[in-house]
Design brief:
With about 700 residues, the protein is α/β, with parallel strands linked by helices. Among the domains are: about 255-345; about 365-545, Rossmann fold (3-Layer(aba) Sandwich); about 550-630, Helicase, Ruva Protein, domain 3 (Orthogonal Bundle), CATH 1.10.8.60; about 640-685, Arc Repressor Mutant, subunit A (Orthogonal Bundle), CATH 1.10.10. It contains 26 helices and 22 strands. Strands 4-3-7-6-5 form a five-stranded antiparallel β-sheet, sandwiched between helices. The chain has a five-stranded parallel β-sheet with strand order 13-16-19-12-20. A four-stranded antiparallel β-sheet has the order 9-8-11-10. The longest helix has about 35 residues, at about 225-255.
Length: about 700
């Protein structure tokens, strides 16, 4: 943002004349501060003169970087005050939302506040949004602070009022000194301030800032140590109160848990949606649940939110498969302070069968659908389509697409058993097109008469179309079918008649075709390897079965299902799985899909010593994902290539956002869905040029 230097100088002169508390004669102080040089650097920055390198810019790097953010973000350098909320009800609501922080700060603020009267200094507390919620200290300074809205209700983030102790501490996440001319906005340059962030002991989030402010003559280098010590004392008070409340919430649950079983999954959350206790919940699942609940209940601290509103907000943030779990309130002294979430480790799969109007659901259809284990929305959607096809007499062909091992044949059998009149005696014929030589394709599909070709059987042989008459023909891997055979298949599907090789007689066939493939048939059509007319004929209705890596917690449901099924077959007790093993299962990509998982569970039943499966019992290519799940992106625990690819993707995403938002870091952070401090650290981490981008 370029502004006229003369206008800037005139504004500062007028400001210093209006504010007798400003120390115009203060020439130099510690940290190499020189007021004239600092003002000259500020004027140079605003005038757009960037000839001098950063090392010669005459201000500290913290201040230079903050000024650059402010200039890039469009902050008005001549601004005289911060935004202010004058509605007292709104201010009181903000304070009530930070009641825990205010309570933790009460002791230290009371002790320090008594010492500040007559010193010219005031001590303030801001919430995570930079809004002042408490102020104590020298009465004259508190009164003067009203001129610039440095009072309860004022908003002091960098993106609205430029460089200052509160906003810059929130941005950097570190204690910050901002003295006099180092402020970005002209109206605040007659103040000095030191801010230190307060972090939530539970998860390390910045939840507020302690700030010491006053006229420039109160400046001392140790001011920053004072506010940092006050912030640490508040954090210790928060830790004590949180520990006490966690214990009380556990006691409240125990006293009311009449139906709780030790095998059930349990998660206890506090009023802020923080998961303070869990049992029988795998680490990866716990993190996803806690993050979803925490995000969805971020406003649950508001006192106007009723008890039922809090519980509703918790329920709606749960994954779809857990929406039916029991959520009970936990109250302390009559006030709702949290909730207990109870759900069994093995969750009963909700019905995925859709009933077509005017049809009855057979038990065979229900049984066929129940054989497809899973609760993920994508899988349930595929089951829904398959059951509708099974109940419809009009749909005569279905295309099932999915990777190898996802269970395509289960869907074909669902269509067979769920069809009108479908029984165990109704023909179901399966043919793997990838296992037939080109020469035998015609014979397998359409049959042949005696002596039709060399090697033909003496009695002749019906093809799969005849064998499947009145039932379902499943053509697996149809993408492997030679293109010169495809016109004959299309003709059979269109005319519903078949001729055996070497025979002139036509035979009527009534067959429902279920074709499946692990290829992208649309790409095969474009490449000329699959006929376009045949593709449209067999894909009247199509289903995509999601790979196991896209099905989330279905992995755990399948493990439990396969574990019990194999145990029943062997006549032994089911295996137990350590939570670390479940973490690895959830993180692993399962390239072989359900087939790979089934083979693994069978192997574990044979080779596991004891009845509990630990990380060393599973293959290393799977167990390594448990450590990778918990490691930070730059840790050495995961494969180096994966870390590099993640960092490259993140670096490119930041660059793309910078280009799209023309370097406006506030908008970049919003676009990326991260906080400004996180963006700032990422820019440093990846060496991306900041400031004027």
């Amino acid at each position: 943002m370029k502004q006229d230097p003369d206008t800037i100088k005139n504004s500062i002169n007028a400001l210093q004349t209006r504010r007798p508390m400003a120390s115009a004669g203060l020439a130099t102080i510690d940290l190499g501060y020189d007021e004239r040089k600092t003002m000259r650097a500020w004027e140079t920055l605003l005038s757009g003169d960037q000839e001098h390198p950063r090392s010669e810019f005459l201000v500290r790097s913290t201040i230079h970087d903050s000024w650059s953010r402010c200039a890039t973000g469009g902050i008005d350098a001549l601004q005289q005050e911060a935004p202010f909320e004058s509605d007292r009800d709104a201010v009181e609501n903000v304070a009530r939302a930070s009641a825990e922080l205010l309570s933790a700060a009460k002791r230290s603020f009371s002790a320090i506040g008594q010492l500040l009267d007559g010193t010219g200094a005031m001590l303030m507390l801001a919430d995570s949004d930079g809004v002042l919620i408490d102020a104590i200290g020298d009465k004259r300074t508190i009164y003067d602070g009203m001129d610039i809205h440095l009072a309860v209700g004022g908003k002091w983030t960098e993106d609205v009022v430029g460089t200052n102790g509160i906003g810059t501490a929130l941005w950097t996440g570190e204690p910050v000194l901002v003295h006099a001319a180092e402020h970005f906005c002209a109206g605040i340059k007659s103040w000095t301030c030191a801010g230190a962030p307060v972090r939530d002991p539970f998860d390390g989030r910045t939840i507020g800032v302690v700030d010491l402010s006053g006229p420039p003559n109160i400046f001392r280098p140790h001011n920053i140590a004072l506010v940092a010590a006050a912030a640490r004392e508040i954090e210790m008070a928060l830790a004590d109160s949180q520990k006490e409340e966690r214990a009380r919430l556990l006691e409240a649950f125990i006293s009311s848990a009449n139906n709780y079983r030790s095998t059930d999954g349990l998660m206890i959350i506090d009023r802020h949606g923080r998961a303070i206790y869990s049992n029988n919940v795998p680490g990866a699942q716990k993190r996803r649940l806690a993050e979803g609940i925490r995000h969805g209940t971020r406003n649950c601290r508001l006192p106007e939110l009723t008890d039922s509103g809090f519980l509703d907000s918790v329920t709606t943030t749960l994954p779809q498969e857990l929406r039916s779990c029991h959520v009970s309130p936990l109250k302390l002294n009559g006030d709702l302070r949290g909730a207990a979430l109870l759900f069994p480790m093995t969750i009963e799969r909700r019905s995925s069968i859709s009933i077509v109007p005017g049809t009855a659901i057979s038990q065979r259809l229900r049984d066929a659908a129940s054989a497809i284990v899973g609760q993920s929305p994508a899988l349930l959607s595929a089951v829904d389509v398959a059951t509708r096809v099974a109940q419809s007499e009009q749909v005569t062909s279905l295309l099932i697409e999915g990777e190898t091992g996802v269970g395509k044949e289960l869907f074909a059998r669902l269509v067979h058993l769920g069809g009108q009149g479908g029984t165990s005696t109704t023909p179901f014929v399966a043919l793997n097109c990838g296992a037939i030589t080109k020469e035998l394709f015609g014979s397998e599909l359409f049959g042949h008469v005696a002596g039709a070709f060399t090697g033909a059987s003496r009695e002749g042989k019906p093809g799969v179309f005849e064998l499947a008459h009145g039932g379902v023909l499943s053509l697996d891997e149809i993408g492997e079918m030679p293109i010169d055979i495809q016109p004959f298949l299309l003709r059979v599907l269109e005319e519903r008649v078949v001729q055996r090789l070497g025979d002139s007689r036509s035979r009527a066939v009534n067959v429902r075709l279920v074709a499946s493939t692990n290829r992208d048939l649309k790409q095969e059509v474009e490449a000329g390897r699959f006929r376009r007319d045949l593709f449209y004929r067999i894909s009247t209705v199509s289903i995509r079965i999601p790979p196991l890596r896209e099905r989330g917690n279905d992995v755990l449901l399948l493990v439990e299902h396969l574990n019990r099924k194999i145990a029943d077959q062997k006549g032994s007790a089911p295996l137990r799985f350590a939570n670390e093993v479940f973490d690895a299962f959830l993180a692993y990509s399962w390239p072989g899909n359900v087939r790979e998982l089934k083979n693994l569970v069978e192997r574990l039943h044979v080779l596991t010593d004891g009845r509990t499966v630990e990380l060393p019992d599973i293959p290393s290519e799977i167990s390594s994902w448990s450590a990778r799940l918990d490691a930070p992106s730059n840790a050495a625990g995961g494969p180096e290539a994966d870390v590099r690819s993640f960092e490259d993707a993140e670096r490119q995403a930041i660059r793309n956002a910078l280009a799209a938002e023309h370097g406006n870091l506030t908008k970049v952070a919003y676009r990326l869905g991260i906080s400004r401090p996180t963006l700032y650290r990422k820019l440093e981490q990846y060496g991306i040029r900041r400031g004027f981008l």
